[in-house]
Amino acid sequence: MATLLRALRAGRALRGLGGALAAPPATNPQCSSLRRGFQCSMLRLQDESKSDRPPDSSSTTYHEHYQAHSTEQDTTTASHGASAAEPEAEDAPRPNTSYQDQSGEQGEEYETEEQLQARILTAALEFVPQHGWSMEAIASGAETLGLSSASTGMFHNGSGDLVLHFIAQCNSQLTEILAEQHKQVQLGQAEPKKTADFLRDAVETRLRMHIPYIETWPQAMSILLLPHNIPDSLKHLSTLVDDIWYYAGDRSTDMNWYTKRAALTGIYNTTELVMLQDSSADFEDTWNFLDNRIQDVVNMASTAKQVQSTGEAVVQGLMGAAVTLKNLTGMNQRR
Amino acid sequence: MQRAAHTALYDWSHVLGPAMIRQCLTCRAPLQLSSRAYSVIPPPRDTEEKEMLDRILRVDHAGEYGANRIYAGQMAVLGRSRTGPLIQEMWDQEKKHLEKFNEILAENRVRPTALLPLWNVAGFLLGASTALLGKEGAMACTVAVEESISEHYNSQIRALMEKDPERYTELLKVIKEFRDDEMEHHDTGLEHDAETLPGYWLLKNAIQLGCKAAIYVSQRV
Known about the structure:
The structure holds 2 protein chains of 2 kinds. Chain A has helices at 2-16, 33-47, 62-81, 113-124, 128-131, 135-144, 159-186, 195-208, 217-224, 230-248, 255-276, 284-328. By secondary structure, chain A is mainly α. In chain A, helix 4 (113-124) crosses helix 6 (135-144), helix 8 runs antiparallel to helix 12 (284-328) and helix 11 (255-276) packs antiparallel against helix 12. The radius of gyration of chain A is 28 Å and the shape is elongated. Chain B is mainly alpha-helical. At the A-B interface, helix 3, helix 4, helix 7, helix 10 and helix 11 of A face helix 1, helix 2, helix 3, helix 4 and helix 6 of B.
């Protein structure tokens, strides 16, 4: 937290010095700053419509803003990623509650385009039951934030962006829940679950996040199947499955890595499809289906083990028979 | 403080768009952060670094796995001959290397290469077929493979040193140690008449070409 404050102050100081100093070396400039600059100027037009935004000093370039902000972001990510032992004695009074601010604005700091897009998409989610996964939902979402509905122009992929954003949000929520559970187990406050139960709970938790949007979910799924969305949706799916297996305790480094994830992907996809057609109370049928599929996979794994050990026993038996035959026919004798 | 950090992280991940979700590395970070302090790999700063480290670890793991299988093949043919104990000793060292990499991969959530079954079979066949040429054949194969691997480790060491030697000290230590072991195997092979094999030059270059191809592919698949 202290690092974050220092970075914030550093950012403000940079702005104050009018950008004459060399910008701090950005630890990771993600995209060309030129593109940022262009879209930053677009944001500037929208900023003017927002009443709570203080006018930025025109002497600084947006480039330095972004650099300062990305340093701050990296510092934040780094400080979050640092070891759990953060200094307890943090009683420096925070200037504002921007860290708890759900909107993601760092006080009067510059907001990146991606953060703004994320905010709009999150706001758009509440209009999805009404307008479906479409540009109208995004436009309504933008309007609730006080932006003009023309800001939908930022979203070249439109409904694809909205669905992918929702999925990413659900996945990160699931990951947090799993991490929290894992911490509980490590602290000894909870019993570790068996793998089958763990998988069932994880998939159920994740699929329950679709319930508020279940009416329009078929539309969302078909959007994800569009060719230009397939790489992203596959990436989200593989991240999800990898996370679930990791927290289930899988540490394999051979072909099992692939077979386990393939199995779980199959389970997840089929259960998702079943859920679309399920009309039972609280999706009882879906969870039963999920149970059965997971049982199938568990059975298959133990069957595979049995087949392997049977095979080994058979081979040994054959070898024994061959040696016996050699002895009987006298072929073993050296002449 | 933990709660505040946790809440802030929660907000942060709400804010990050799909493009940035990959950057929510804390959630995807290895659990070692909560369980132990020591680790060979530093927590990655961003996706690019994670990809680079993943690639390095994946190909190293594949290499050790392949080397393991090569020695297994050689032992299957020459296990009961005079060179058996020598090959067994080199094989044991490779087993230790593979174990270490298995540990590192599991800890850091690195995907192993999908071609492992291929290296399984190919390595065994290579070891067995060169061993059928006799002890010199097996030694020549060892020399060729170990030279490739040492060269490969050296280039990785160079790349890591160029980037940031302090950040990767632990990893560099591991790779240097393994590289020294492989060089030792290489010298052992030379000592045991590898070069007396007829067609040594041809065999050596063919094997090294195969190794280069295997390394190239394992980094990506």
